[in-house]
Amino acid sequence: MMKVIRFIFKKVIYSAFLLYGYNFISTYFHFAIPINFYTLSFVSFLGSSGLIGLSLFKYLIL
After folding, report:
1. Which of these, 5, 42, 51, 61, has the minimum number of CB atoms within 10 Å of its CB?
2. Measured between alpha carbons, how far is 13 from 32 in angstroms, rounded to an integer?
3. For the chain, what is the mean pLDDT?
4. Taking the model in full, what pTM does it have?
């Protein structure tokens, strides 16, 4: 049980740093994605492909 909790915690921390790094770079292009529960859970679940999906969604839809 502790391994599962540790795995999920590592994924959430990795995703938070990934989103923060993306937002740090994308501020020069005015294309930041907000860091909230939904984006963090989406990127935690899908990984870097989720981040690409969020950026494409923002570019194409919004």
Report:
1. 61
2. 19
3. 92
4. 0.84
Domain residue extents for the chain: 2-60
Q: Give the pLDDT of residue 29.
A: 87
| Token reading at 34 | 């907000």
Using alpha carbons, list the distances in angstroms from residue 51 to 1, 3, 5, 31.
28, 25, 23, 13
- Hunting for tokens 């540790």 — which residue is that? 6
Question: Which structure tokens are listed for 27?
Answer: 């501020």
Long-range contacts of 53-58 (CB under 8 A, 24+ apart): 55/22, 55/26, 55/31, 58/31, 58/33
Look up residue 53 and give its two tokens.
């999906």
Three-state secondary structure call for residue 33: coil
